[in-house]
Write a structure and sequence with these properties.
- It is built from eight helices and ten strands.
- The strands form two sheets. An eight-stranded mixed β-sheet has the order 1-2-4-3-7-8-9-10, sandwiched between helices. A two-stranded antiparallel ribbon has the order 5-6.
- The chain has helices at about 1-30, 75-85, 105-115, 125-140, 150-160, 185, 205-215, 240-255, and strands at about 30-40, 45-55, 60-65, 90, 100, 105, 145-150, 165-170, 195-200, 220.
- It has two domains: about 1-30; about 30-255, 3-Layer(aba) Sandwich (Rossmann fold).
- It is α/β, with parallel strands linked by helices.
């Protein structure tokens, strides 16, 4: 009887161990459908974007906006990391940009071809259209938007316009320009969701006033001890201290 009990316990432990390993394997081996898509901006320009879609209808969504002179290629690596965290992603080419990581900004290319302006503020129709595209096609219960440099300033404005946005991560925002006659610190009090701001260590003053004017319950920040880097490149594996940025990002996402 005693030997039978011991044998039962051994089998049970092996079964539980096997189950745990399978569960861990399933959480790591996620299925992602990646494709380059196109949709119309609010002024009918064609916007190009890379879609990293999890094979899971209920997956929360992240929209990724690049920095100046860049493209959706800014997020080749980062989007995959967010996939691992359980988020579908859309990395967008805004018309204000050019190329990075060998990926040409096709929205910018078309805008130039048809003589549309491509200054920072001119990217807002593309960003609004991206939010609408995700909301209408995927209807996520959780929708995060991420901005880098100039686009992170514009995400502050988006957070005042769309009720369906549940969180903003702004990498290196600043008063680089005015949008529709207003500074970004003037938009800050009107945001409707939590906003997380970070940057390189030497850029903290650039966004301090914007942060100051955010509603206290919606204001989150990470001030790095490391040197860091401008924009969302802080999350790239090549950036020293990227792991600290990731820790702060994960903590923010886990609390909203």
């Amino acid at each position: 009887m005693k030997n039978s009990s011991i044998l039962f316990l051994i089998v049970l432990v092996l079964f539980i161990g096997s189950f745990s390993l399978n569960a861990l394997s399933n959480s790591v081996n996620i299925e992602v459908k990646k494709e380059t898509i196109a949709f119309k901006s609010t002024d009918e320009l064609t916007v190009t974007a890379d879609l990293y879609l999890l094979d899971k209808e209920s997956a929360p969504f992240i929209i990724l906006f690049h920095q100046a002179r860049y493209s959706r290629g800014e997020y080749i690596e980062t989007a995959k990391e967010f996939n691992k965290l359980g988020y579908s992603c859309l990395a967008v080419d805004q018309r204000s940009g050019k190329e990075v990581n060998g990926v040409r900004n096709l929205t910018n290319k078309e805008a130039v071809n048809i003589n549309l302006p491509t200054n920072y503020a001119d990217a807002m129709p593309d960003m609004r259209a991206a939010v609408k595209y995700v909301q209408e096609n995927y209807k996520p219960e959780e929708l995060i938007i991420i901005g880098s440099s100039y686009s992170s300033s514009l995400t502050i404005v988006l957070a005042t316009e769309f009720v369906g946005i549940t969180g903003v991560l702004a990498f290196s925002p600043g008063e680089y320009f005015k949008f529709e006659g207003k500074t970004f610190k003037e938009y800050a009090p009107e945001v409707k969701c939590p906003v997380f701001i970070t940057s390189a260590k030497n850029e903290l003053k650039a966004w301090a006033t914007i942060y100051k004017y955010l509603p206290e319950i919606f204001a989150f920040k990470y001030e790095p001890e490391v040197k860091g880097i401008h924009g969302s490149r802080a999350l790239w594996k090549t950036t020293e201290g990227n792991e600290y940025y990731w820790e702060a990002v994960k903590e923010f996402l886990g609390n909203i």
